[in-house]
Structure formats: structure tokens, C-alpha cells
Protein: Olfactomedin-like 3b
Amino acid sequence: KMRGLLVLATLACFAAAQHQALIDYLEQRLLAIEGRITLWHEQTARYASELRDLKLQMLSQLENLDKEKEALRTSLDGVGTRVDRVERELDYLETQNGVQPCVDVDDKLIEQQVTLVQEKQKAKYIRLSDCSDMISSIKAMKILKRVGGPKGMWTKDVGQGSGKVYVFNGTDEDTVYQFSSAQDFTRSPGTSLSTGVKLPLAWRGTGHVVYNNHLYYLSQAEEIQVIKYNIANGSVTDAAVFPAQDHVPVYSLNPETMMDLAVDEEGLWVVYATQQNERHISLAKMDAASLGIEQMWDTNCPRENAEAAFVICGTLYVAYNTRQPGRSRIQCVFDVNGMVSNEEAPLVYFPKRYGAHSSLKYNPQEQLLYAWDDGYQILYKLVLKKKQEI
Ligand SMILES: *[C@@H]1O[C@H](CO)[C@@H](O)[C@H](O)[C@H]1NC(C)=O
Ligand SMILES: *[C@@H]1O[C@H](CO)[C@@H](O)[C@H](O)[C@H]1NC(C)=O
Structure:
């Protein structure tokens, strides 16, 4: 019986102990849950306050946005009024000037820019040259007479001048034939109606000009000289050694002519060649009063097969012998203003003639070329046109 009681007590004890453990366990769980609830409460409170702050911020920003929107609306209204006004003004202008579509406005702008470019080019062009003519074709040819040898040159005084005609027969003489007019020259048997002008030094080649009552002729002793000779009182006004060394004949088909002078609307030019640029012809602008050189250019015109050249409005035209017998043509041009290129230059053939040109002298007043062709004195009437403006 006693043992039975002991067992019961032990069992009760056991049960009690188990109960206590359960209570302890539950208490711990509750504590843990409470802790988490507290934590959660804290977090919620924090979130709530953050949310509140955010809401406040949002509110104030919304207010700002409202204000900005208002300001924007006001300024947009202002712009709208101005657009309206501009539109009204445009309408008014259109009624004044007729309707001009937008495309035309663009074209106008481009046109204006093109005009601007053209003005600039013109300015550059005017600075270098006052005239804008270029050769278009040879309109007519007139053989005036035959006097003298195969080589020589003849010309009228190309200045504002006398109208007198001068004949340089040969390439190494000292007496020029002077005729008082072209008619006298034509009707004169030989040189009988002329007066002789005897020069202090013999000329060399065919590169001379007569300009404003002065002979500008080339003489060669040790050096090539340009001599300016006053015809009226028979005195040498000036003489200058051309400032280039190692001259070579400027045209391969006329080896006696080392240098060639030319007169155009701009004044006096020198066509020459040196060993430094042996294969090509060079050009220089010479001051007719002082014989000083103003500017020099190397051209792309070859000396090979060239027979003569002349200048019109700052453009050099070089005549070459062609393979066809008795024909020569202008085959190379050089424009100091860069307005005429070889591609743009017209193909100009000289009419059929006798031998070879030993000189071609341009007269700007008459638009005539005075040519010497195997002793024949020939006039070519030129047709000029305006240089193309881009
Ligand atoms: C022209 O010069 C040649 C030599 O080149 C000469 O034979 C001829 O007689 C000269 N003629 C005149 C008219 O001077
Ligand atoms: C020739 O005429 C020019 C210009 O008229 C003058 O300057 C020069 O002195 C004259 N010469 C002679 C030798 O008379």
C-alpha cells in the first residue's frame, strides 16, 4: 500500500513538474511575442511618422508645383499674346507683299547667301581687275598686207592715243616703221608712207608694245631690258632689268622672243619663262609708269608648242600650234583672278593661215588682235563675253 502511495506521489510530482515546464515555456513564448509586438509597435510608429513627414513634404511640394503651374500659365498667356501679335504682323506683311510660302523664304535666304558670296568674289575681282570680259570666239579675220620678213610684230598705239601704227620687222633690228594711221599702213606700197623711228638700242624678239605714245621694247645685251622710249621727243624715259634670272624663251616655237609684253584693259603685262619653272609660262604685272613689277604668277600653261600669247582683262591666252597643218588655237588660259579655268575657256581656233604666228598683240580699245603670220599682217576681230560668276 505504501509503495502504491509512493508511486502516486511520484507520478503527481512528475505531472506537476511537467506542468511547470509547460507554463515556463508558454511564458517564454509570450515574452518573445510581446517583445516582437513592442518592436512592431515601435516600427509602425516610426513608419507612421515618416509617412506623415513625407505627406507633409508632398503637400508643400504640391503647393509649390501649383504656384509654378500658375506662373507658367501666366507666362504662356504672355507668349500666346505675342504669337498672336506676330501672326497679325505677318498677316499684315503678307497683305503688303503678297503671299510668300515658307519654301520661298528658304530660297530667298540661300539666294541672299549666294549674293553675299558673289559680292565677296566681286570685291576680290574688282580689287585686281576692273573689267570682266573673256574671249568667246574669233568673229572675223582680215589680212591687211604683207610687208617684211617671216618674223616680226605690228601694233597700233594701244593707249588713249595717236592711232598710229608701228611695224617691228624682224627680231633684231633698230628702226621701227611708224604709220600715221591704219589706212596709211594699208595703202602704203611697202613701207613708203612710214617714217622710221631709230632706237638707241636694237630690239630683240617680238615682245614689244606701243602704249600711250611710248615704245616699250625688249633689248638684250648681257641682260634682258625693258626700255621705255618716248616717241614724241625720241628719248629713253626709263629702262629696267626684269627681276628674274635664267630666262628661257617664253614660247618654244619663237625662240628669239625671251619675254613678251602685253597691254590689256588693266595696263602692262610681262609674259616670260625662267629655268626655275622651265616647262611653264610665267606672268607678271608691270607698272607702265615706273616699270616696277607689281605681282608675278606661275601659270599652268606649257611653253612647249606655244607660239604667242596675249592678255584680256587679266586673263592670259596662249596660242599653240596644232597637229593640223596651218592651224593654231588657244589651248591654255590663266586668269589672275581665278575666274576662268581651262575647262571654262572656249575652244578658239584661229582661221587657216600661212605659217606660224610670231606675235599676237591685243588692242583693248578695238577688241582686235594684231597678228604677224609669216610676213602677213592680219587682224582678228574678237567676240568677248562676260566671265562667268559662280
Ligand atoms: C624685214 O626684215 C627682213 C629680215 O628679217 C629683211 O630681209 C627685209 O628686207 C625687211 N623688210 C623691210 C621692209 O624692212
Ligand atoms: C621728253 O618728254 C618727257 C615727257 O614730256 C620729258 O619728261 C622728258 O624730259 C623729255 N626728254 C627730252 C630729252 O626732251
